[in-house]
Amino acid sequence: MNLCAVALRALCAAAALATVAIPPSRAQSPNAEVARKADAAAARGFAWEATKNGRRVLLVGTIHVGRAAPPPPDCSHRFAQAAVIAFEADVFDAQKVGQLVQKLATYPSHEPDLKSRLPASLHERVEALLARYGLDSPAIWRMKPWMLANTLVVVEAARLGFNPAYATEAMLYQLARTCGKAIVEIEGVERQLAIFDGTSQDLQLAYLEQAVKGIESGESEREVRRLVEAWERRDAADIERMLAAMRESGGAAERFVVGQIIDGRHPTMVEAIDRYAASDKLHLVAVGSLHYFGPNGLLALLRARGYTIKPLD
Questions:
Q1: What is the C-alpha separation between 97 and 34, in angstroms, rounded?
Q2: In angstroms, rounded to a whole number, what is the distance separating the alpha carbons of residues 280 and 57?
Q3: SS3 of residue 47 by DSSP
Q4: Are 235 and 225 in contact (CB under 8 A)?
Q5: Phi/psi zone of residue 131: left (φ > 0), alpha (ψ -120 to 50 degrees), beta?
Q6: 68-71: long-range contacts (C-beta < 8 A, 24 or more apart)?
Q7: What is the SS3 assignment for 51?
Q8: Alpha helices, DSSP H only, in the chain?
Q9: Helical (H) or strand (E) element with 60
Q10: Which residue from 175, 226, 201 is spatially nearest to 36, judged by alpha carbons?
Q11: Label partner for 93 (CA 20 to 30 A): which of 6, 17, 52, 218?
């Protein structure tokens, strides 16, 4: 069974899980160096310009974890041109996100915790991973299965050197604040978490079991490395292959990821991009790279609406 869906989706959720501790930069007067770094941040990974009827919007394919490396040299001015930066969700308000996680991703204190809900065999495997990461605490066991699954994969990615602190969103958010750009949300954290919270207990347990299996087998590590490296070298073909593998898998976790977490969110994103393109202010849209590709991806949906898509180097 293909396990990459859980690993890839967990990385898509990494921002909401881990980057809330990264404070935005204090506002500073924009200068040439800040603008250069902003352009460089936006230039990483995939980027396009979408135009229709003389209107345009800039699209950036992000990745929700990254390596501890300096930004690449300046190679464009698209960030400096944009007046508004649109993210999937504003995950940098730690207090607000913490409240939403408490509300949607954890069991209330008067209810049984996750320990009592797991099959014995899965319980033992989860405990082994928590011990490996030094995470075994009462708070961890208040998490719902989907939240624990995402947390485990994100922690494993960080162990491998791929940290949410170096996510594209973290860099763009800080630079947007520094440069005085307006920031808007396409969806919001609550809506993203609610997708997971609306699933059945059986599906959540299957999702957790897949995450544990992927970490144990090393497949999670391979898929994380593959995704990050494909993003770094702008390998659209490999991203397409990853998505195709998820679509071809018959697993419940994969169907959930493709149907609800990836494709299911695209109508909202496309409607937002339409609004941004019609605005008199240039918008830069920064969403996860997986959302752009495939037959139901944003690029295909935008082309179907009459947009011309131009890759940006």
A1: 28
A2: 11
A3: strand
A4: no
A5: alpha
A6: 68/161, 68/163, 68/166, 69/166, 71/37, 71/40, 71/41, 71/44, 71/171
A7: strand
A8: 4-12, 14-18, 32-43, 78-81, 94-104, 120-133, 138-141, 145-159, 168-179, 189-197, 201-217, 219-232, 236-248, 252-256, 266-278, 298-304
A9: strand 55-62
A10: 175
A11: 6
Q: Which residue has 């204190």 as its token pair?
A: 109
pLDDT of 16 reads 47
Tell me: pLDDT of 26 over 70.
no
Whether the pLDDT of residue 140 is over 70: the answer is yes
Q: Is 248 exposed, middle or buried (0-12, 13-18, 19+ CB in 10 A)?
A: exposed
Amino acid of residue 285: V
Q: Is 157 exposed, middle or buried (0-12, 13-18, 19+ CB in 10 A)?
A: buried
In terms of pTM, does the model score above 0.90? no
Q: Do the beta carbons of residue 171 and residue 224 sit within 8 Å?
A: no
Could you tell me how many residues make up the chain?
313
Burial class, 111, CB count within 10 angstroms (exposed 0-12 / middle 13-18 / buried 19+): exposed
Domains in the chain, number: 1
Q: Helix 236-248 crosses helix 219-232 at what angle (to 10 degrees)?
A: 140
Per-residue pLDDT of 102-131, as tens digits, reads 999 999 999 999 999 999 999 999 999 999
Task: Give which of 6, 7, 1 is closest to 222, Cα–Cα.
Answer: 7
Q: Residue 181: give the domain boundaries.
A: 4-311
**Residue with token string 């339409």:** 274
Res. 18: pLDDT tops 80: no
Tokens of 76: 């464009």
- List the structure tokens of 138: 């009462």
Q: Vertex 212, ends 65 and 120: CA angle to 5°?
A: 150
